[in-house]
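Sample entry (682 residues):
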Amino acid sequence: MIDEITDFLFGLKMTIISAIFLVIAVIFMILGIDIPIYLNPAWGAVIISGIPMLLLALTRLIRERWISSALLIAIAMVASLMIGEIFAAGEVAWIMALGALLEDWTVERAKKGLRNLINLTPQTGRRIVDGKEEMISVDEIKIGDVLRILPGESVPVDGEIIKGTSSLDQSIMTGESLPIDKDVGDEVFCGTMNLYGAIDIKATSLGENSSLQKLIDLVKAADEKQAPTQRIADKWATWLVPIALLIAIAAWLITGDIERGVTVLVVFCPCALILATPTAIMAAIGQATKYGVLIKSGEALETLGGLNTLVFDKTGTLTYGNLAVSDIISLKDDLDEMDVLNMVASCEKLSEHPLAKAIVEKAKEAEIDIEEPKDFKMYPGKGVSCKNSYGLVYAGNSKFLSENNIDFNVDAELNHLKHEGKASIIVALNDSAIGLIGLSDVIREDSKSMIDSLHDLGTETILLTGDNTETANYFASQVGIGKVYGNLLPQEKLDWIEKLKSEGKKVCMIGDGVNDAPALKTADVSVAMGSVGSDVAIEAADIALLGDDIGKIPYLKKLSNSTLFTIKANIIISMAINAAAIVCSVLGLLNPVTGAIVHNAGSCLVVLNAALLYDRKFDDSIKKIDTENVEHSHYHFHNDGEHSHSHDGIKVIDEIKTENGVKHMHVHKHALGRQSCEAYHN
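Predicted structure, serialized as tokens:
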């Protein structure tokens, strides 16, 4: 009940109302309006901001045995009320409420990401009993039950395939960008998606023992390890409270004037000290937001400046996470690369597999008129076949070609593609192999330059990925990362982060997937790719790059250093003003009201100094989001007219023009990592 009252009165609306009462009181003082003490408008601030502050101080003192800065402010407020200085009491209470409100805005972390992760857990399963299917709750599934998972369904529990073949999307667990082919005897994980063929599995682990539940538990446990940042003023409160009381009592006893003692308490209140950290952090967060970086905690800013080890995930972080055709290899002298591409694109045209879509997209880019296939057949986890003008075409893995008695001897080519971390499809015509297609994730253009910049700053870089080791090594060599660890599950990534921290290293983790969430939570600082990253990863991370521009990491470090400098400067300013005000109070140069005004001026000075951080420039190469002055366009020509694409600020407009005017117009709006699409038709 007490916590609910405190949270309500310390809220934004009530703090604004409290400020209004103080402003009215100031106006009355300026105009010389004499009113009875019980009608002083400052009572509104005392009641609204003072009561929760008093409750907070007593709760911390009695329940938590914690001498906090709230206790010193409560003493000053009560002392001011005892001598009839209502405005001074209301002012110190309101400053405390404002500081608490500012800090809440900067350190509060949403729990939505964890809820999203929990929602990934399937709620029902399709159990097979005596050859019949029945839908049951996941809670009813027992070890050894046979479950059927149809294409498009999620695996409800960990299990082992006992019938069927398929390809599963395991990105939730491993971050692997490619679907994984599964056959009888292979293990499947809870929460992963079955893409193609129906499979029957035998349940091997349930509930809290499932791989997905363990992932959820890892995120929860890592979150609990993150202690909230304690305010600087509260760290010093143990010393400030007795010192303030001693000086106030001494001033009263020596001078015989209780008003001087109360004034000491008023000016001694560490309100400017309380505001020193949150205001600088708010300014830094606002500065970063202008450049498309969302910083969710002040602790992250503080730690960034001292980090010395940067750990990357691969897929969606150093790469785009999108498959593209990288190699077209012809094994026959009478067939060129375009013939191979044309042949396999026709065969893959009706497939929904991500590899097939990448091949068809490549053929479209090459302006190939893709032939319609005949007798198309798909074999989940193996490949496809069809007939076209070339003959009977097969496209798939080596097992698929062997089952169809097709002659192939492409081990050297397959090993070369595998060494470079690429997926491969063997293309066969009639009874012999005629080519290979290699597919690979696409490395971000700025990945290498960013890694080079970090190395120049003396920062160590490490790659932790769920991809196979050969793939990981190839991509790491392309961007310049020396240390590589592949084939990692979420627990193993987390273990590596903890190992690095145990060696005394300050670790920053950058990732984008659900599987990265535990490691992101455990790292000293974590960064998620905001536009393409999963909600869970974004919520688990301290920082989100809304434009997925990892080149901004050096900028973030400079921002962190400047923020720390501003905080320290604010602390020095506030302590200097407090020291001068205490001397003036003891000498009788200030009374409670003028002391409150000086005290308020110090708080304002701290806020203004922090505000300067908002517009400071750290790196000319980092451009802020400009919604007014950025404009460019380019044109493509189609048979039905002119297709124009223009970029106006953060609004992207696509128009298809015909002789009769605009036929279609698509507007894509990008803001803070989100995208919306509107369509207009004549």
